[in-house]
Design brief:
The complex is a heterodimer. By secondary structure, chain A is an alpha+beta fold. Chain A has helices spanning 2-16, 45-59, 128-135, 199-216, 225-228, 259-268, 281-284, 288-315, 322-331, 333-339, 360-371, 373-377, 388-391, 408-418, 427-440, 443-463, 469-473, 529-538, 549-552, 555-571, 600-613, 618-629, and strands spanning 29-32, 35-38, 95-103, 110-115, 139-142, 152-153, 156-157, 159-166, 171-177, 193-197, 394-395, 425-426, 505-506, 512-513, 574-575, 581-582. In chain A, strand 11 (394-395), helix 14 (408-418) and strand 12 (425-426) form a beta-alpha-beta unit. Chain A is elongated and about 100 Å long. Chain B has helices spanning 2-27, 40-76, 89-119, 159-167, 255-266; strands at residues 134-141, 144-149, 174-177, 179-183, 187-194, 199-203, 208-212, 218-223, 228-234, 247-252. The termini of chain B are far apart.
């Protein structure tokens, strides 16, 4: 007796660890001060039920997300005749074409069909179990005028879905729900074609639950079991997808990311955060990365739609009937999804790219200077005759210019020239470097020199009062600017005019944020010049790092800033009077580290007498001007 | 009846051992990497394992065979009285000296491999020209392998230069994650760091396993003599995402070409296309 009780207890303990965990989507949240509340909890019970039901109808439940065929999902442009589709192509959940083949003997509530298995998936056909798992439960969408499409049982439209798949013969067993009664089976239409939509999403969900859910949560709310761990204290928090905001993108500030952006984040990881690289996922599973990206987009859309419904139900509860409201919103789900910022595939989100490369201006200036050396020494040759690539780096005369007849581009540059914080190289200094480059027959010398001028201009921008770089990142880029110690305006809903309780910066999720320490050399959004360019020119969505394109205007100016930022970890944040960068990192030495190393010993003898013979020393004046403009 | 059973039982095991040894090569039972390490040192480590396996197998089959023989013989002989050997000085001396001899032999025989693997490289660092073999710094962190190569073409002459390079980022460094390129048929030096907790750099095919300790740069030496890709895993339970720490080591003929390719991808400014790999640029997908 006692033994059997013990055995029963032990069995229950063992069995408790078995079985798949119950997955549920977390409800949408709203910030109130320090805490978040369930956004749905505050609603009228009937409204709440409606919102939940409608979202479930469009997206399914967490453990059974079957209803994605309710969204207009089209991927193959050449076949626009999908039943129920609109000409909006937002989602790409994977499409496989198939044909209904034959019934089993007597109608048993299912029939067989054959599909054209996509080539790129055939390499996985050795793993029949996994493929079956990917495709099972996926819904069928009939193409054209199929009798199956209109099938109804007691006015309920019949849903067709894959009950079983045999990877060897590519035969499907198609189940229906509700089940068609035996007598009403349509006997026509066995050559009708259909699409299987959503196998990519299913694969994505599979990988997401295995690799991502632990931090990002089942609903993509950034609140998975690991994120909730009190001892781990993840900072930054895992991303909450449900606002549709993603930090490191190639698009305009605040816009939805492109698939490539998400893919890049998953593949490369975010250095300096808990987000590791999943580069090997590509090798493990064909199309695995694409599938996860699609699932993340889908979760994000779901979260946005849910929040939108809860909001509109909340605010319009008095006049419009919430039931009708929720119904329209879901029936128009694809339209809503576009309205919250997701672009259809036919008009993709435009990735921002510079129009000129990082060194284009420097290369052009180098070439012109070497070709026109004799003009430079001519005192009557003035600034307005220089091409703009040279003019932005060089000043030949200090007289004020009449700018009326000049082209707009030159006017803009001359306007900047008047802002004395911007580093310019004088005629004297320039001639020395041009001469040296000509003597050594090395254009690289002049190019390196101009590169260092670009970095110095970048530092001037960084410290200028026109750009707020230093306010957050600090004068030396350590991420310790004055804003990190100031109280910030609260952006929580309903807290207009109030401030956050603690000083420092906050992100769009109302969580404390630290500006990047630019001396560390760790760049979360990637270290390519293009990545830094995008951080500067379009900002980081969801953070106080806004787009600075409006201040810097031209690509050349942005590249100046990028060149400076990229030089900080290796060359330091400050310059000495010769324009050489001091290394101010941990291994700080009194010796300057050279932005253009091979040039320093060579140009010193040439530099000294020239500076002595002139009454005006350009460099010291420059550095005092620098100090003046620093706050 | 039970006598026969025990006779058969103890006869079965030496026979099973012989059968397993005989079919093992055909069944592909053995060490990772098609039973052959992709490094010379790994092959010597394998040889040691096989030597020990051989000694153990011979001892096992010998003792089990002897036991079976004695049982069979004893089961038929019902007249003779047993001889109790307990307390036999001679026997005790034999079974102490023989295994000690074997153990001593193994201990001395493996010293050379161990010295190459762990000890020899700590001597004569500055006189040794081998800093030139530095390939990369690998930083294990939860849950990925961050890799930093020196700038393509950069040569290290002394350990002082190596130490300086390890201490801070340098201009021209090439960064990568989870995929490590190493040269083929050339001695390779890798420095292993940890960004957070204890990890272990484990490449089964190369027989390389080294713990990464927070706050230390640990040098790993190996020479890969087979081109190909090898799985890199973490062999120290490092946290809840331990299973995510998958990487790849690829041995290539021309390491510098790979570094130049990675560098040009890293220098991509959105306008000038990097040389080599257009496939790794952002595509046209929305």
């Amino acid at each position: 007796m006692r033994l059997s009780t013990l055995a029963f207890l032990m069995l229950s303990v063992v069995a408790a660890g078995c079985g798949s965990p119950q997955l549920t989507y977390a409800p949408p949240e709203r910030d109130i001060g320090n805490a978040t509340v369930d956004q749905l909890a505050g609603l009228d019970p009937t409204v709440r039920e409606n919102v939940t039901n409608e979202i479930e109808a469009a997206f399914g439940t967490a453990s059974n997300p079957v209803a994605w065929d309710r969204l207009a999902v089209v991927a193959v442009e050449s076949n626009p005749d999908l039943v129920g589709s609109r000409e909006i192509r937002v989602l790409d959940f994977g499409v496989i074409q198939g044909t209904a083949a034959e019934t089993t003997q007597g109608w048993q509530g299912s029939f067989r069909a054959k599909i054209a298995w996509p080539d790129h998936l055939t390499s996985r056909s050795d793993n029949a179990m996994e493929i079956n798992d990917t495709i099972r439960g996926v819904g069928l969408q009939w193409i054209g005028t199929s009798k199956w499409a209109g099938a109804k049982v007691d006015d309920t439209p019949v849903r067709f879905w894959v009950e079983h798949y045999d990877p060897r013969t590519h035969q499907l067993t198609v189940g229906t729900s509700p089940q068609l009664p035996q007598g009403t089976t349509p006997n026509v239409g066995f050559s009708d074609t259909f699409r299987l939509v959503g196998h990519v999403l299913k694969q994505g969900r599979h990988i997401f639950l295995r690799q991502c859910m632990h931090c990002h949560g089942v609903a993509g709310d950034g609140n998975g079991p690991t994120a909730r761990n009190t001892f781990l204290k993840m900072k930054p928090w895992p991303r909450d997808y449900r606002q549709g905001l993603f930090k490191f993108t190639s698009v305009k500030f605040g816009s939805r990311p492109t698939r490539d952006d998400l893919k890049r984040t998953i593949r490369e990881g975010l250095p300096g955060t808990y987000m590791p690289s999943f580069a090997m996922l590509e090798h493990d599973e064909d199309g695995g990365l694409d599938a996860v990206v699609e699932y993340v987009r889908w979760l994000s859309m779901r979260g946005q739609l849910e929040s939108l419904l809860a909001d509109s139900a909340d605010s319009d509860a008095s006049n419009a009937t919430p039931e009708a409201l929720a119904k329209t919103a879901v029936e128009e789900a694809d339209v809503v999804i576009v309205s919250v910022g997701w672009k259809p595939a036919s008009t993709p989100q435009a990735a921002i790219r510079p129009t000129r490369g990082r060194w284009a201006s420097i290369d052009a200036a180098t070439a012109w200077l070497l070709a026109n050396t004799n003009k430079l020494s001519d005192q009557s040759f003035t600034d307005d005759k220089l091409p703009k690539d040279v003019l932005r780096l060089v000043t030949l005369s200090d007289e004020s210019l009449t700018t009326d007849e000049l082209p707009d581009e030159i006017k803009l540059i001359l306007q900047f020239k008047k802002k004395d914080f911007l580093t310019k190289v004088s005629r004297t200094e320039l001639l020395e470097h041009v001469k040296l480059a000509n003597d050594k027959k090395s254009p690289e010398h002049l190019r390196d020199f101009l590169k260092s001028v670009s970095a110095r201009r970048g530092r001037d921008w960084f410290l200028s009062k026109d750009t707020p770089c230093k306010d957050c990142h600090g004068d030396t880029g350590r991420g310790d600017g004055p804003q990190t110690r100031a109280l910030q305006e609260s952006k929580r809903p309903g807290e207009a005019g109030k401030k956050y309780e603690l000083p420092g910066l906050y992100d769009a999720w109302h969580r404390p944020l630290r500006p990047r320490n630019l001396q560390s050399g760790v760049y979360r959004g990637g270290r390519r010049p293009l990545d830094i360019y995008r951080r500067v020119s379009q900002g980081i969505t969801g953070t106080p790092m806004q787009s600075f394109k409006t201040v810097l205007i031209t690509d050349e100016n942005i590249w100046d800033v990028v060149n400076y930022v990229l030089s900080i970890p290796t060359h330091g944040a400050s310059f000495d009077e010769h324009g050489h960068q001091y290394h101010t990192g941990r291994n700080s030495h009194a010796t300057p580290s050279h932005a253009h190393s091979h040039e320093h010993p060579a140009d010193k003898p040439a530099d000294k007498p020239a500076a002595d013979s002139k009454t005006t020393k350009p460099k010291p004046t420059k550095s005092t001007k620098d100090k003046k403009t620093q706050p | 009846m039970s006598r026969i059973f025990w006779c058969l039982f103890f006869t079965f095991w030496p026979i099973a051992a012989i059968v397993v040894c005989a079919i093992a090569p055909a069944m592909d039972w053995g060490f990772p990497g098609n039973r052959e390490a992709a490094t010379p040192l790994g092959q010597r480590i394998d040889d040691l394992f096989y030597l020990i396996l051989g000694i153990v197998t011979v001892a096992f089959i010998g003792t089990m065979g002897a036991l079976a023989y004695v049982l069979w013989k004893g089961s038929k002989n019902e007249d003779e009285k047993g001889w109790f050997s307990h307390g036999s000085h001679n026997l005790e001396v034999i079974w102490t000296i023989v295994p000690s001899g074997i153990l001593l032999f193994i201990a001395l025989y493996q010293i050379d491999v161990w010295a190459i693997y762990r000890v020899r490289d700590y001597e004569n660092r500055d006189a040794d020209p081998r800093p030139t073999h530095l390939v990369a710094e690998v930083t294990a962190r939860q849950f990925e392998w961050r890799i930093r190569y020196p700038a393509p073409g950069k040569k290290f002459k002394t350990y002082k230069e190596v130490k300086d390079w390890l201490a801070r980022p340098h201009a021209g460094d090439v960064y990568a994650v989870n995929k490590l390129f190493v040269p083929l048929n050339r001695e390779t030096l890798i420095y292993l760091k940890s960004g957070d907790v204890q990890h272990a750099f484990f490449v089964p095919d190369l027989r390389v396993k080294q713990d990464a300790m927070p706050g230390q740069s640990i040098d790993i030496w190996f020479t890969v003599n087979r081109a190909g890709k090898f799985n890199l895993t973490c062999a120290e339970l490092c946290g809840w995402g331990h299973y995510k720490m998958r990487g790849e080591v690829e041995a290539v003929e021309d390491l510098q070409a790979q570094l130049r390719r990675l560098k040009s991808l890293q220098d991509y400014d959105g306008v000038t296309p990097p040389e080599g790999a257009p496939g790794e640029l952002e595509g046209a997908t929305p």
